[in-house]
Amino acid sequence: MWMDLDGFNSRAVMPPGLYITQLALNWAWTPLFFSSEGFSVSLFQALTDIVCLYGLVLCTIYSWYPVNKLATLMMLPYLAWLILVSSLTYCIWRDNPEKGKKE
Predict the structure, then answer these.
(1) 40: pLDDT confidence band, cut at 50, 70 and 90?
(2) Which residue from 19, 34, 67, 83 lies 20 to 30 Å from 44 (Cα-Cα)?
């Protein structure tokens, strides 16, 4: 990516910045989803995290396309995986109501 943007310049800030940010959100999802305390609250936070992550991945793909089309294509399986994981997270959150809430 750096070679495609001719080193570190103003054009080279956004694509790697988006990538690093989406990696941080990806790493945050696992402890939020698998937290044992406050299960439904953590699931809602995990769902919020993965929806934001989905948006960041779309922005990353959009910013990478003019720079490196191969790198953009390599993000598409990850995007498909996020669609699956976000739908599963939503279904698990929906099927596990908050503690103390009457069904």
Answers:
(1) low
(2) 19
Q: Residue 83's pLDDT band (boundaries 50, 70, 90)?
A: very high
What are the C-alpha distances in Å from 93 to residues 18, 38, 59, 96?
Answer: 27, 12, 26, 5
Secondary structure string (H, E, C) spanning 67-79: CCHHHHHHHHHHH
Alpha-carbon distance 69 to 65, whole Å?
5
Asked if the model's pLDDT at residue 103 lies above 80, the reply is no
d(CA 52, CA 55): 5
pTM for the full predicted model: 0.76
Place of tokens 């003019």: 66
Cβ–Cβ under 8 Å, residues 90 and 31: no
Cα 86 to chain center, whole Å?
Answer: 9
DSSP class of residue 97? P
Instruction: Record the tokens describing residue 95, joined without a space.
Output: 């099927």
